[in-house]
Design goal:
single chain; globular
């Protein structure tokens, strides 16, 4: 899906050449700003005004990242994101004029990889896509992006799929992961059985540590354990370490 290009260092084009879908019903924003702006930075870009157009196109081509507005007339953008996430490990960047923090947290937890607000800054949009592509590329090839995305298959039994969006049990059964669950498990697997501090896990979620409610992390871990138990019929070896954080023993 990605083709590496030999180009000058420091440009986005030194990343794997990627196909980007832009789902935005504002014609001027889509056609005059987003598509030209991303194309100028070395991405292959296609634009869509309606979700149905994107869905039809996905039947014949694949995209690496989709940039989508959530205020769409036909279907809510988060519903589109969930549909896309269920079908593939596509990267999802939400671009919206809304400032609802609860909606943002829900979107990031359920499907989106990044959440950007309008008015758009093309440099930020392109940098966000580039960062997402680097993480996905390193995970898929097994190359060490950083300690959070290392290899992903350290476990002899419990493991993550190559894209990191499924947790595989020793039985071979698998369960889909949300973005937050994926981030936490990537960090825990990368730790190789060593405890990971709560602050590190919170930082992995992309949240400011000083303003993050620690009970939210506890609830996320609790829901993950229960989800695995209910969905796979097995106990995930993820336990808390008093005064420190969590450890995954695999």
């Amino acid at each position: 899906m990605l083709e590496r290009q030999a180009v000058a260092p420091g440009s986005n084009a030194e990343l794997p050449r990627a196909r980007i879908a832009v789902l935005e019903d504002d014609d001027a924003l889509r056609e005059d700003i987003l598509i030209p702006g991303l194309s100028a930075r070395g991405f292959e870009v296609e634009g869509f005004a309606h979700p149905t157009g994107l869905y039809r196109r996905l039947l014949v081509v694949s995209f690496d990242v989709v940039v989508l507005d959530i205020g769409l007339p036909e279907e809510h953008g988060l519903s589109v994101a969930r549909q896309l996430r269920a079908g593939s490990p596509i990267g999802i960047v939400v671009l919206t004029g809304r400032g609802d923090r609860a909606e943002q947290l829900r979107g990031l937890d359920e499907a989106a990889d990044a959440w950007l607000t309008k008015p758009v800054d093309m440099a930020i949009v392109a940098a966000t896509i580039g960062s997402l592509l680097r993480r996905v590329s390193m995970v898929d090839t097994g190359l060490p992006a950083d300690s959070a995305t290392d290899a992903i298959v350290m476990a002899a039994q419990w493991r993550l799929s190559a894209g990191g969006w499924k947790l595989l049990a020793p039985s071979g059964r698998a369960i889909d992961l949300s973005r937050s669950e994926r981030c936490i498990l990537q960090r825990l697997f990368a730790a190789g059985g060593e405890p990971v501090p709560r602050e590190v896990l919170i930082d992995e979620l992309g949240e400011p540590v000083d303003s993050f409610d620690p009970h939210r992390l506890e609830m996320l871990i609790h829901r993950l354990r229960r989800k695995v138990a209910d969905g796979l019929g097995e106990v995930l070896p993820l336990r808390s370490v008093r005064g420190l954080g969590y450890v995954l023993t695999v």
